[in-house]
């Protein structure tokens, strides 16, 4: 099965609403990264997380290592938040990232 | 800071030809990673170098694929005898230290006809 399972796979939101994306890990995970892939394909860094919570503007992310999951909360969604969000796990002594399948987010006016 | 640079951005090859992809990591970063993205498989790890030494190539197809890092300012991924199933976006990333943020380049979109 998927070592990093992301949910939902797709989500459509009205501008101004809030959402939560989730990743569950079935591999040993030390750190988590969240990325936004824009329509041109570039992966933009959102968060690098050790266990705990970080916040940046309208985005907030938590990594709970004991329960093996991470969440990304988007507050007051804007049109420019549209794209595909990926989480990626690093751990087990390996520096490589294991990615989830992504959540395709569409923000509608 | 120009970020991670990848060239070419697009490459079209005929089946059986060789393709060489280039990556220039962020200056001062000690690690370079190669990943591949397809619709079916998603984002997959291929290989990585630290301080120019190959560390982990567990994701590399055993045949036809090879990667090198001849100096700290660039890495290459070479695919010999390309096949249509090699068509993908090949992404390079670099990081400053172990267990650190990985920064991705824009990718090279490879199409094998």
Describe what you observe in this structure.
The complex is a heterodimer of chains A (109) and B (113). Chain A is mainly β and 109 residues long. Chain A has strands at residues 4-7, 10-14, 19-25, 31-37, 43-49, 52-56, 59-64, 69-74, 83-91, 94-99, 103-108. In chain A, the strands form 2 sheets. In chain A, strands 2, 4, 5, 9, 10 and 11 form a 6-stranded mixed sheet that branches. In chain A, strands 1-3-8-7-6 form a 5-stranded antiparallel sheet, with no helix packed on it. In chain A, β4 (31-37) and β5 (43-49) form a beta hairpin. Chain A is globular and about 45 Å long. The mean pLDDT of chain A is 95. By secondary structure, chain B is an all-beta fold. Helix content of chain B is 0%, strand content 55%. Chain B is built from no helices and 11 strands. In chain B, the strands form 2 sheets. In chain B, strands 2, 4, 5, 6, 9, 10 and 11 form a 7-stranded mixed sheet that branches. Chain B has a 4-stranded antiparallel sheet with strand order 1-3-8-7, with no helix packed on it. In chain B, a hairpin with a 2-residue loop joins β5 (42-50) and β6 (53-56). Chain B is globular, with a radius of gyration of 13 Å. Chain A binds chain B through residues 30-31, 33, 35, 40-43, 45, 48, 86, 88, 90, 94-102, and chain B through 31, 33, 35, 42-45, 48, 50, 55-56, 58-59, 89, 91, 95, 98-104, 106-107, 109.
In brief:
The complex is a heterodimer of chains A (109) and B (113). Helices cover 0% and strands 62% of the residues of chain A.
Keywords:
heterodimer; A: 109 residues; mainly beta; five-stranded antiparallel sheet; 11 strands; 0% helix; globular; B: 113 residues; four-stranded antiparallel sheet
């Amino acid at each position: 099965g998927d070592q990093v399972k992301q949910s939902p796979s797709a989500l459509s939101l009205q501008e101004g609403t809030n959402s939560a994306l989730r990743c569950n890990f079935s591999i040993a995970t030390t750190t988590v990264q969240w990325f936004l892939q824009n329509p041109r394909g570039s992966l933009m860094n959102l968060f690098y997380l050790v266990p705990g919570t970080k916040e940046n503007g309208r985005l907030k992310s938590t990594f709970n290592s004991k329960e093996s999951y991470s969440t990304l909360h988007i507050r007051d969604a804007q049109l420019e938040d549209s794209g595909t969000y990926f989480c990626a796990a690093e751990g087990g002594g390996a520096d490589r990232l294991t990615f989830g399948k992504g959540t395709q987010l569409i923000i509608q006016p | 800071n120009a970020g991670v640079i990848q060239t070419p951005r697009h490459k079209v090859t005929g089946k059986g030809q060789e393709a060489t992809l280039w990556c220039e990591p962020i200056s001062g970063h000690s690690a370079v990673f190669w990943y591949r993205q397809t619709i079916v498989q998603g984002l997959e790890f291929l290989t990585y170098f630290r301080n120019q030494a190959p560390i982990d190539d567990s994701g590399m197809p055993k045949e036809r694929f090879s990667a090198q890092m001849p100096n700290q300012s660039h890495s290459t991924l070479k695919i010999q005898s390309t096949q249509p199933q090699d068509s993908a976006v090949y992404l390079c990333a670099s990081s400053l230290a172990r267990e650190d943020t990985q920064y991705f380049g824009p990718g090279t979109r490879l199409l094998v006809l």
